[in-house]
Structures are given as structure tokens and as C-alpha cells.
Amino acid sequence: MASKSSTKITSLLVLICFAAFSLTTEACHPTDKAALLDFKSHINQDPTKLLKTWNASTDCCVQWEGVACGSTGRVVNLTRPGLFSTDDSIFDTFMNGTISPSLGNLEFLRFLDLSNLKQLVGTIPSTLGKLTHLTDFFLDTNQLTGPIPASFKKLTKLRRMYLGDNRLSGSVPASILQHMSSLSELGLSNNQLSGEIPSTILNLVSLTKIDIHGNQFSGSLPSTIGSLKKLNYVDLSANKISGNIPQSIGQLSQLNLLYLFQNSLSGSIPSSFSGLSALKFARLEDNKLTGGLPSTIGKMSLQRLVVDNNKLTGELPVSIGNLTNLDTLSLKNNGFTGKIPSSFSNLNVLTLDLSHNKLTGKIPAFKTAFPASSFEGNSGLCGSPLPPCKTA
Asked: Where this protein primarily resides, as one coarse class (predicted)?
């Protein structure tokens, strides 16, 4: 979840690289200068003067902050985010206005970062689909509305696209993802996007991260999601996704984070789940999952496992005691039965919640002292921190 700040650091490093290594032999191209000046004219407020150096009488390749050019004088980098850092300071500012359609005339642009400006409004111009050389695209954390333009299907060289934390609506056109085989990071979180997850997402063979949480996506997960072998970060939480968790998910051997909470998923947690050997953070709470936890779950590398508020049943797997890296285990509000395995005393968890299940017997001696609330709602449990067990 900390990836947004790392993305901004990466943006700054790329800007530095452009400044250090771009050998500008010609002055700023007139078409590019006109496009940038038109963008500036659409900005109503710029309190910290992010665009103060953008002057018609100067060379945009040399004297304009946030702009870098290639050797032919064509703009290849436009970086004016509202949150950025220097060697000794962090700046958090904003700009109010709209995105000029003229930015689509920057035909050699490779890197575009107008993120975190907070008060950019209006729609995303469809003309940005003309930026066919674009590899990195950041418009997140603004107040942009309307759909994701279908013209984005032409952005086939994209490696990273972040449009999250806006007010975008409508479905994601399937054609957009059809030819983005180079896309490694896709961020659309916290918008008002709806419809099914396009099946064309399976074409994103380079995808390592997908974050679409906090929308209104519906339908089911692609049954062959396991074909996206490079995925290490998947956050689909807080949507309206239904159906089963596909068995193929167990093929994601590089997956580090899986957040599916606050959806309407049903069925059992697939047996293949325990094959996610790299998985550290798993949150499946607030769904309609049934069945039990996989018996071999103890083979995983989990640090956090949260499955609260489902309809899970059965006994707790003894193998959970093997998860010595686990710091959070929360299984509350399910229907787990039987005793808490003695192997749980091996756990180093700092947060534990087994409340409101149907567990019985004596509570094992955990390494950390937990409050009674961690076990309440299990009428058959006894022992510290609950009342002592009755002796025969």
C-alpha cells in the first residue's frame, strides 16, 4: 500500500535521469511549446508557482521546470506532481484547473506525471490517446470525472498507469487492455468504476501489480487469473465481485499481497491457496466464503491472515502453528469448531482474534498475552484470559 510514495520517488529519479542524460541539440519544438502553454492557460490556480518558469519567451527544453526534451527538441518528459521531494524537503501543493486536450500534441512524450495536484477537474481528454510513446502515466489523486477514454487502446507501450483517487466512472473498455502487453502496474483504485473486470486483462502478461480497490466492479474473477505469472500485488477489495476464488490463483508463485476483502465472493478457499509460497499478506474478510481453511496452509510464508466475517467452518488446521512469521491472525465471526490446536503456542502473533466462532477446550499458552475479547463468543473455551477450565 506504500507503493504510491515509491512511485513518486521513481518519478523524481526518472526526471533527474532525463535532466542528466538528455542532450538537447535543438530548441523546444513550436508544437510542443504551444501545447504546454495551452496546458498552463487551463490552470486557474497555481499557488506555489509550479509553472512559473513556463514563459513563451524562453526555451522549454532548457528553462522550464518539469520539462525534459530529447536530442531533437521534442518534449519527452512532463513532470509536475503536487507531491514531490528534493534533497532536503518534501513539498505538498496543488493546482486547480483542467487538463488541456493540447497535451495530446506532445507526440514524443514518454513520461507524464500530473498526480497529486488534487484539484485538477473535468474529464481526461481523449487526445491523450495520441501519446503512443508513453511508458509512464500518472494522473492519480485529483478530481477527474467521466470515463477512461477508449482512445487509450493506442497506448501500447505503457508500463505503468495510475488513475486512482479520482471520480472516474463507467466501465473499463475491454479494448484498452487488449494490446498493453508491456503494462506492469495498473492503478485504478478509489474511483466509481463499474462493470465486470475485462477478460482482456489476461493479455497483460507483464503485469506485476493491479490495484482497483474501492470501486464498484462486479462479476467474477477471471477463471484463468493464474496465467498472469508475474503478479505480486493484487488488491481488488471493496468492490462487488462475486463468484468463487479461482483454483488457478495457486499458480501465482510470485504473489506477495492478495486483498479480496469486502466483496461478495462465495464458495471455498481453493486448496491451491496454500501453494502461494511467496504470499505474505492475505485479507479475505467480509465475503461469503464457506468451507474450511486449507489443511496445508502452514506451508506458506504468511505474515497477515484475515478472514473475518465469512461463513467458514471446520476445525482450525494444526499446520497454522508452523506460520512463525505470522504477526496478525484474525478469524472472527465464522463457524470454526473444535479445539484451538496446541501448535498455536508456537505463533509469534501480535494481533489475534478468534472471537465469535464455535471453538471449545482450553486456550493454549500463547507467547503474547491477549485480552478476553480475542476469544469471546466461543462458549466452549476456557483458560487464561477466560475463566479457568473446570477440573473433572
From this structure: other
Helices then strands, counting H and E runs in the chain, come out as 2, 29
- Which DSSP letter does residue 367 get? S
The answer to whether 136 touches 162, Cβ cutoff 8 Å, is: no
- Residue 24 and residue 69 in contact, taking contact as beta carbons nearer than 8 Å: yes
Return d(Cα 42, Cα 163) in angstroms, integer: 20
Residue closest to 326 by CA, chosen among 296, 293, 282: 282
345, 346, 347, 350 alpha-carbon torsion, rounded to 10°:
70
Query: Are 332 and 309 in contact, with CB atoms under 8 Å apart?
Result: yes
pLDDT tens for each residue of 202-260: 999 999 999 999 999 999 999 999 999 999 999 999 999 999 999 999 999 999 999 99
**H or E element, residue 209:** strand 209-211
Cis peptide, bond prior to residue 385, ω within 30 of zero: yes
Taking the mean position of all CA atoms in its chain, how far away is CA 193? 15
Between the CA atoms of 295, 296, 298 and 302, what dihedral angle is there, to the nearest 10 degrees?
-100
CA distances (Å), 271 to each of 166, 219, 220, in order?
37, 22, 19
Residue 195 three-state SS = strand
Cell numbers describing residue 347: 505463533
For residue 335, what are the CA distances in angstroms to 287, 292, 358?
A: 14, 9, 6
pLDDT in tens, 81-112: 999 887 778 889 999 999 999 999 999 999 99
Angle at 251 between CA 247 and CA 255, to 5 degrees: 110
pLDDT under 50: residue ranges of the chain: 1-3, 9-10, 12-25
Instruction: Say how far apart CA 8 and CA 13 lie, in whole Å.
Output: 9
CA distances from 251 to 111, 204, 211, 258, 260 (A): 33, 16, 19, 13, 17
Q: Residues 269, 244: contact at Cβ < 8 Å?
A: no
